[in-house]
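Whether sequence alone determines local backbone shape is best considered at the level of individual chains. For completeness, the protein is quoted in full, as a sequence line and a line of structure tokens:
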Amino acid sequence: MEPIRLLLLDDHVLFRESLSRLLESEPDFAMSGHCGTAAEALELLRRAAVDVILLDFDLGEDHGTQFISAARRAGYKGRILMVTAGMSAMESSYALQMGASGIFLKHNSPGNLAKAIRMVAGGEMWVDQRVIRAMADGVRFGEEQSIRQFLTEREQEVLRGIFEGLTNKEIAGQIGVSESAVKATLQQLFQKTRVRTRSQLVRIALETSLGTPRK
């Protein structure tokens, strides 16, 4: 039987290297590679065969669902298992809608991860019970809308662009304003939402229902 070829994408070096060594010790797994950024992972996908991608959600300036979209656009047809410290109900739901085959929380044992990988590679789903409970509890729509009502139309447009992984220049071209106007709006968003990074703004986009695919 051919081994299950794995690609690990996680921005924490120690975790990534330790997990790679652990997975390589399994007789039916083969590591195609491990990467710290989405760009590195996409480049590796062009050069190596991969059956299952093990994908962290929070990748610093990027996030997992952005990578799922980029990988699918690049032609990747394999399976994707989120391996994360935690995701909200909205983030979990969106990742599954985007094509993730499961969500595995890092507090679980290595043995359970190996089991999850085999299930996903075999065409099944794996979703951690904590994630299922959180999704069953539902999204706090009242809180989401209370955040959204304080954002101007331009702030919402810029926030959607950030969610889609666009640069400031690309957002400016999309909404028809100058790049400096986008930068100014970005600073307003940071002040209003009290976050400091673009990755954190992605979470705000999800919570305000702006993080949904364009029609």
Summary: The longest helix spans residues 179-193. The first strand starts at residue 4 and ends at 9. Strands lie at 4-9, 29-35, 52-55, 58-59, 62-63, 79-84, 102-105, 126-127. The domain at 4-137 is CATH 3.40.50.2300 (Rossmann fold).
